[in-house]
Amino acid sequence: MNDTSENITVKLRHVNKRYRSRRGAAETTALLDVNLEVRRGEIMSVIGPSGCGKSTMLRIIAGLDTDFTGEVQRFWKTERKKGLPDTGFVFQSPTLLPWRSVRKNIALGLEKAGLSRAETDARIGEMLEMTGLADFADSYPNQLSGGMQQRVQIARALAYDPPVLLMDEPFGALDYITREQLQEDLLKIWQSTEKTIILVTHATDEAAYLSKRVCVLSSRPGTVKAVHTVPISYPRTIDVKAGADFAQFQNLLREELKDEPK
Ligand SMILES: Nc1ncnc2c1ncn2[C@@H]1O[C@H](COP(=O)(O)OP(=O)(O)O)[C@@H](O)[C@H]1O
Ligand SMILES: [Mg+2]
Q1: By CB distance 3.0 to 4.6 Å, which of 105, 112, 140, 143 could disulfide with 83?
Q2: What are the tens digits of pLDDT across the range 47-87?
């Protein structure tokens, strides 16, 4: 695949981000001259030491933070209905409304879509099915495990069909078995929806298992240290984690992160 703008979804050009302290004294440079192209339909992981600016970068891509220099070019394929966000966002800790059922939490994402009641119900039904939540539609967040709550976040983020799904360490707080299950499910969801996914993680195995490419950020100020293509074809099942290619690639990531002060 060559990098014409045809197959690029988001392009960051010379992005710099500084946080100013409230009293105007100290400044933190979070991102320094970040250049990156994310291709349409790929899963790209962004990996880097804690505090290197991963969340900041995701927020900038989402348009949640506009206080930066440089440029973010977005090449969305579809025309979006006014008021509908271009990106779905999944946070590390679920941001579900405790007083709303699973169904009603997913509906949140659809409120601006201007759909009829029947269309909304059908869409929620699809999302419940896709994320394995069909039996939990009327449960409340506090009745769900952490893994289930993350599924609800994914369903909510995808409900309005954004072209890009941004995930900020979405499985970081889950136990290992639940994480692996959600990783497998995410691959299935990705294959059926063909979304572009940008996934922040600090787990090298997660990056290697899920992504087509991995962007390695240096420690703060975060700058792109390398972008690697994962040498494993899709569809992937959990067995690939036992393969030599996988171990080798994960080692490469580990080595690169090892050079970075934590
Ligand atoms: N709202 C903020 N105000 C000031 N500094 C911030 C703010 N958010 C993040 N930072 C700083 O910017 C750097 C990058 O943060 P972040 O993007 O959260 O890193 P990561 O997600 O890679 O751990 C960190 O040093 C952090 O302390
Ligand atoms: Mg973060």
Answers
A1: 112
A2: 999 999 999 999 999 999 999 999 999 987 555 666 677 89
Q: How far is CA 56 from CA 19, 120, 214, 239, 258, in A?
A: 10, 32, 17, 33, 22
The tokens describing 194, both together, are 């063909």
Q: Choose among 69, 114, 46: nearest CA to 257.
A: 46
Strand partners, 28: 19
Nearest to 169 by CA among 89, 262, 71, 65: 89
Distance 220 CA to ligand 1 centre (A): 9
> Which strand (E) or helix (H) includes residue 74?
strand 69-74
Nearest ligand to the CA atom of 219? 1
Closest residue (by CA) to atom 24 of ligand 1?
A: 51
Mean pLDDT of the chain: 91
The span from the CA of 151 to the CA of 127, in Å, is 10
By CB atoms closer than 10 A (0-12, 13-18, 19+), residue 248 is exposed
Ligand 1 binding pocket includes 7 (Cβ within 6 Å): no
36 C-alpha to ligand 1 centroid (Å)? 19
